[in-house]
């Protein structure tokens, strides 16, 4: 039996933070009130002196930990190749940025840092030395449309095995196990005038593996509202989904990488009062993790595609997770 702890990323409160409804302390307070045992901080979003951590900000972190009993356990790094106007950053430049993020994570006391696949497998391999130096476990985020078995993630797995480093691994995002369309996208399409029958057809075309352009042509030929294009793009992009029949295969893929996982992102897009995420099979995923030797955090991560704020949804998600894990 593993030791799955529950946390939340302060990204959940990004809408409230961006609207100046919450300051940093209020984000931490809301994570605490929702039931988080620790939180992830995304450096570019909430560290005023990013990429460095000032002593003043560190002092704030420590005061809030004393006040609410929770502190940063995960650090969300920024891996952006497009910082120059005329070219992409090189592997060495991306590596240097990742080392700066490691320093920030270390100063904050985080033991896990999430990196993204813009950091190439070659740069990821070179990062092992620095991860070990700062004693921080660095996980490549497996984010939809990637999956544990996709060729790119297998390249990272090869690096992990090649280095033998206990400081390189994965952070799977639950969104890559989606088995139904994204509900907020669906809701926005209906509000824009798209007929539900056209949305259902779009979902079926995606399940059948019909190419995006062919699906688009068919829908528009049937008179679908043009607003369906955004929903359709999501179905084939960062919120794509597979048939429910493929879930057993996806869960087996998860099992193969579990020994290399440092943290999980509990992605969720919508939660009614019934505490069911419409597109992501939480019960099945959590059953695999609960019955493994995993020791670390599940970090709740709300994508506020409805721009309504994450406070209530994050509370619901942590309540749902506790129920599924038998912690309530």
Automatic annotation (TrEMBL):
Entries under InterPro entries matching the protein: Xyl_isomerase-like_sf, Xyl_isomerase-like_TIM-brl
Gene3D superfamilies: Divalent-metal-dependent TIM barrel enzymes
Stretches assigned to the Xylose isomerase-like TIM barrel domain: 31-317
Highest taxon, organism lineage: Bacteria
Residues passing through the membrane, by range: none
SUPFAM superfamilies from the UniProt entry: Xylose isomerase-like (SSF51658)
Designated name of the protein: Xylose isomerase-like TIM barrel domain-containing protein
């Amino acid at each position: 039996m593993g030791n799955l702890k529950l946390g939340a990323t302060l990204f959940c409160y990004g809408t409230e933070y961006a609207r100046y409804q919450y300051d940093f302390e209020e984000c931490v307070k809301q994570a605490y009130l929702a039931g988080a045992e620790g939180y992830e901080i995304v450096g570019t979003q909430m560290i005023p002196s990013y990429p460095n951590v000032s002593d003043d900000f560190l002092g704030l972190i420590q005061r809030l930990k004393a006040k609410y009993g929770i502190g940063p356990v995960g650090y969300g790094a920024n891996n952006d190749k497009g910082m120059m106007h005329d070219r992409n950053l090189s592997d060495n430049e991306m590596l240097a940025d990742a080392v700066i993020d490691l320093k920030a994570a270390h100063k904050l006391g985080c033991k896990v840092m999430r990196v993204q696949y813009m950091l190439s497998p070659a740069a990821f391999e070179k990062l092992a030395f620095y991860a070990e130096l700062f004693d921080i476990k660095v996980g490549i985020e497996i984010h939809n449309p990637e999956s544990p078995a996709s060729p790119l993630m297998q390249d990272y797995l090869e690096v992990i095995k090649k280095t033998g480093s206990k400081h390189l691994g994965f952070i799977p995002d639950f969104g890559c196990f989606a088995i139904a369309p994204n509900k907020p996208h669906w809701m926005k399409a209906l509000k824009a005038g798209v007929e539900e029958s056209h949305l259902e057809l779009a979902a079926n075309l995606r399940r059948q593996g019909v190419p995006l352009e062919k699906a688009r042509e068919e829908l528009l030929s049937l008179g679908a509202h043009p607003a369906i294009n955004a929903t359709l793009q999501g179905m084939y992009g960062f919120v794509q989904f597979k048939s429910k029949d493929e879930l057993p295969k996806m869960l087996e893929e998860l099992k193969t990488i579990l020994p290399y996982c440092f943290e999980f992102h509990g992605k969720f897009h919508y939660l009614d009062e019934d505490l069911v995420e419409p597109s992501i099979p939480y019960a099945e995923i959590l059953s695999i993790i609960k019955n493994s030797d995993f020791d670390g955090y599940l970090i709740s991560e709300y994508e506020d595609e409805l721009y309504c704020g994450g406070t209530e949804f994050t509370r619901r998600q942590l309540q749902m997770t506790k129920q599924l894990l038998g912690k309530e």
